[in-house]
Every structure is written in C-alpha cells, then in structure tokens.
Amino acid sequence: YPSEFLMQKITEDNQIPVHLHVSVSLQYVAGLKGRALVEFFHSNIAEVENEELRHLMWSSVLFYKTPNVEVMACVLLSTKAIYFLLDDSFVHADEHQSDFWNRENSDCENSSFHLSCCFVLKLNDLQSVNVGLFDQYFRITGHSAGHIVTCLTRDSYNTHTFIQQLMAVLSLLARTPSPEPVDKDFYSEFGSKNTGKMENYELIHSSRVKFIYPNEEEIGDLAFLVAEKMDGLTNLPSLNILLYVLAFQVNHFEGSAQNSSSLQAKTLILTSSDLFLFDEDYISYPLPEFAKEPPKRDKYQLADGRRIRDLDRVLMGYQTYPQALTFVFDDVQNQDLMQNLTLDHFGE
C-alpha cells in the first residue's frame, strides 16, 4: 500500500478550486504530490497506524452548529474516518460558536506557524448520508448536532465519486448484523400506508448507514414554491424547472485601493419563464432525528427573480472553469406596464 494508481488519482484530485481562497496551511497541503501526500496523511492526520487513505476531495463545507459559515476544506476519506482539514480562520469566524472548537492553540496566532484544525468523523459514528438535488451537495449525519456536515461540491461528478468511495470503505467495516425483521400482520402492514406523504428513496447499506436520495416530490415542492414567488402569474401545471444549480453570485466592490469582488453562495433555478436566485439552507433539512424544533429559516428564501422575456443579453467570460455569466435585464420598473396602459385608455 498504496498502489501507484491510487497515488496518481489522489495527486490529480489534490487541486484547490481556483475561485476560492484558502490559507497558507491548506496551500501547503495542495502542493503535496504522490508519496509525500500519503506520508503527510499518516504523520499528521491519521489516528490509527494501519488505516489507509482512499480518497481526497476539495470542497466547501457547512457545519450544523455554524450554518452561516461556509469554509473551504480538504476532505480525506480513509478506512477508519472522514477528515475535514479546515482553514484556521474558521475557528474565529463565528464567535458565538467558539465553544464548538478547541481553542488550545490560540497562543500560536502571532507565531510563524500556520495552523489548520481537523474535524474527524469516525465511520463507526456515521448514521446517514443525504444526497442533495441533482447531486450538487451531500450531507453526512452522525449521532449528534456536532457531527453533521454538508459538503457543497457544486459538482455531480465529485459527489458521485465520493459516495461510491464511501460505500466501498463502509463495506470493510465489521458491524453486528441487523436483527431479523418481525413479521407484520395484515392490518399493521397496510394501515400505515395512508400517510399521503411519499418518503425519500432510501438505500440501507450493509454497514447499516442510510443513503437517502431526493424523490420527485421534492422537485414538485420546489416548483410550487417558485410559482408562489411568482404571485400566481404562471399556470402551475405548465411550470417546469429546467435547471437547478448551486452557484456563486459575484458582488463587485469598487474601492479606492483596488477593485475587489466577493462570492455569495446562491441556488440558481431556471424555469420556462423566469430565472431565480435563492438563499438555500443546505444543512438543516431534512430535520435530524434529535432536532427539538424546526430551523429558524425556511429551506428556500427568494433573493432575486427576473422574467426571461426581460433578459436583454448574456455575457460569457472566456476563462476556463468556473465559467462567469452576466445576465443583463431590461430595467422595467412596472412589469405589468402594457396591462395598465390598456386599462387607462380603454376602460371606463
């Protein structure tokens, strides 16, 4: 261990997305190749001597206890645990949640050391994995609020690859088999079916970890929500969601020193008549079993919405991934201008 193929694959995956900024410590990790990367894992991260590194992925992550702080992480999957190597800046990002992290190393702030904190989720503690719509993200759930993490891959390929690798690693775990199901009688078997609510697709792995995928109803609920935001202007049956993608909205700041831009995570939804930007809660839904109350905010909050018929032009950047798109809309203040004109001129 490890094979040449695995080392080559891990080296290829060890690339930080160009549009996201990371600390010096994570830049150091991203510069490691092949055997140096495996040795770094064993000497600095691995908790057990005989565990094997199986997969590496760079992704933005959200924690259940700090739902408003999206942080870049190097995600390392081994045969024992999932490791999230985080920016040290994350520890200080949310002062209200400071008790979530051990702050023993705060005295090293002004030294020449570049620290990273590593969040560890043991595979034995893993209970379920929720895959988001169109494989744009997935949420890993452990046994408590401190063990819920969402990986915002924004890429169906990365999501699919990680899930496949995770399933393969979970197959190696020796867990006690589930008890045999109790034979149900006729009435209990058919009496509980009339809830009127379709459950999400569940795949229960041999390790007893649930892999939960969204069903068609989730798209239906989303279409209904979008139609609601459109103030009933559109016929709901004809409303089709053509595209759902996790993207970033670029906010450009023109300052005296230098022009800068910040990226704000948004969910972009395209229908046959409108383009919407939503602020989505990726970490709180579906509710974990131990949750005592619903989350403070809705899953989808409308940030912006424009009609396709008002779209004037689309500007495309020529850079490689990530592609920048600029949508230019006609600035019409009153959307129902023609209708009002008709009333003014031809009504009584």
From TrEMBL:
Residues 114-178 form the PLEKHM2 PH domain. Residues 241-347 form the Nischarin C-terminal PH domain. Keywords: Cytoplasm. GO terms for cellular component: endosome membrane. One of its GO terms (biological process) is lysosome localization. InterPro entries: PH_domain-containing_M2, PH_NISCH_C, PH_PLEKHM2. Pfam families: PH_NISCH_C, PH_PLEKHM2. It is found in: Cytoplasm. GO terms for molecular function: kinesin binding. Its main location: cytoplasm. It comes from the Eukaryota. This is NISCH protein. The gene is Nisch_1.
